[in-house]
User: What shape does this take?
Amino acid sequence: MKVSLNWLKEYLNLDNLTSKDLYDAISLHINEIETMTVKSTATNLQVGLVKEKVAHPDSDHLNICQVELKDGLTQIVCGAPNVDVNQKVIVALPGAVLPGDFKIKPSKVRGVESFGMICSLQELGFADSVVEEKYRNGIYVLPDDAVVGSDAAKYLELDDEIIDIEVTSNRSDILSIEGVAYDLGAYLAQKPKVVEPLVREARMVNPIQTKIETEDCYEFQTRYIQDVKIGESPMWLKLRLMASGIRPINNVVDVTNYVLIALGQPLHAYDHDLLGNNIVVRNALDGEKFVTLDEVERTLKATDIVITDGNKPMCLGGVMGGLESEVRPTTTNIVLEAAMFNPLAVRKTSSRLGLKSESSMRFERKVDQVRIARALDYAAMLINEIAGGTVIGSRNVTVTKPYVEKHVLITAAKVNSVLGTNLADEKVEEIFSNLCYEYKKNGLEYDICLPHRRMDLEESCQDIIEDVARMIGYDAIPTTIANVSSAGGLNYRQKLEKKIKQTLASLGLNETISYSLVAEADLNTYSLEVGTPVKVLMPLTSDRAVMRQSVLNGVMDAVNYNKARQMPNLAFFEIGKRYSVEKEELMLAGALTGLFMTNPWQGINQKVDFYLVKGLLEELFRRLGFELNFKANKEIKNTYHPGRAADIYIGETKIGFLASLHPEFAKKNDFNETYAFEINLEEVFNITKKFKYEPIPKFPSIERDLAIVVKDDITADQILDVVKMTARKYLTDIRIFDIYKGEGIAEDEKSIAFKMTFVDKNKTLGSEDIDKVIHSILNRLDFYYKARLR
Assistant: This one.
């Protein structure tokens, strides 16, 4: 919510507050401030009048302008396509400094002297989105009331401070200048000067009749205004809208937007000649077509609210108006609407259609039902003053769900018991008064009638206590240490999770934290186990529609994000949950790509490959007290490379997988050669660690290398299983150090070389002992796999 300080000063006396005082008051006692900035830092600006325009002799788009300023005529070369004689313009004089530290100096433009610059609003720091359409590609033309030679910065209120307040979903009351003024006034002990409009009504009957045929419309009010003149809004109104982030359109639409920001009540203006006198508010028909103001045809559902002319839709209730009944330059008679709709229905419609507007944002959070009439009257009064219309008769009011007052009973003792404070009864009563609560005091008990403007307050003491806490400041609440009977500590799962994070970080990986929500199309991209998806009932976007079934979704997004920013060497891991209707499990996922280690001085460039990632996982689980086994998985899903994929086991329990992305998938999704793993930590937590004491051998060990030739389809794991089974009496360690294919080996064969370590606990082994073992190993390998010694 962008709040103009100048606008806020119309409600409160803030002259004695510095910018820091104001910042602290809002951020500590209302809501957090995202930014607080001056509208523009531009200096040395004047209002000028273009007296003469001559084409530049050496350019087809530049003009030489003679501009009247305070000290007389000044020559300025201007390239704007819309500059013309008799325009009042904004001139940056020599010595001016525009946003971005752009300094204006006398200069020659293609041989012609220029003493200043005629400015657009964008050059003064205004966002392109708030500049009127006709001035977006040129200079800004000031209205006739701008005085030539006067300070343009003052005229445009460039010293106004814009306070961007973060609005939480429950505080819809501060989605208006008046709402902010009430809360700030409560802290400053000031009562805001609210607008009480006085509408001059013509003594005629309002012809508009309204019928509500849906439970999703609680109240609908209209006013009929004749003989309006559509045109530009006065400058004060434009400046208020632009400061709030809204682009001026025309005087009628601008008034509805002005009241929206001022009071927080969305309004809509219809061309009466296109709408007619009979309004019917109903639910849309399934499949009904409707063209909104953005010229997009929408297909509606029965849950959508539409305002119709008795037949066809003219407005999508609470979300956006219709193109057919919009106010246009030829409009002379208008119908003003102020309503209250079911917040849930508006949220469903705006989310489904992807239509988020200033109006829908307020309707979704609830609007003040009591303020509807005042907002409608305020808009009618302003249109009467600015557009010259005649307000016909009184408001047409239709209500299906009247506002009901809410009451809360509370005592100062209750406030103190919850906050841990020692506030006197008089202090609590003072805070209630500053908050403009209406209350009756019976002894020590307050019967508070909750303000209708505060839609977030429920009939609960907690909301009242929270308001008291905000007003005194959270820093004023005493800090106490909880009394506990025993010291806390981490459980086994937490310790293991912490150790995994510390170990992977020490091994060179970086931790990521990603969204648990993914697009439905991406749900099963990386997961090997597919469950029933958990869908979000009303997703904010289609990219966040279902709960993830693989933590790799987020990790791979992080890889792609960083790769797109020229960071090719990446090593990420994440611990998070995957979700299905059947279960929720904690997972460890990771992805590595590029170079894992590089040292140009030593000529080291260690590329990420399958065995590097395998070694990292083996080291991780070794430190955790587990031994991993890997088994090739050639049937893995087509996201992964079937020749570079393995399932990961602890004993007989499968805990996850390690695989390279399939080259076709990687190319399609703009990945380099990337290796990914995902491990089910729930399985790891359930495995009991078995610690076995092994004394240091008293006798020396013997090492032997063996290279055998086998068929390509025989895995190294199968060879190792046979060796371990055959030599289990003496074998203490076995490691593969080479796999060879090439000269001397048939095309359908490969050579596997491994190093074995033998020890006997009772004696020193001799060569003859080891020879017998080697002979047995070769016999068994020949029997099982027709392997032969290389």
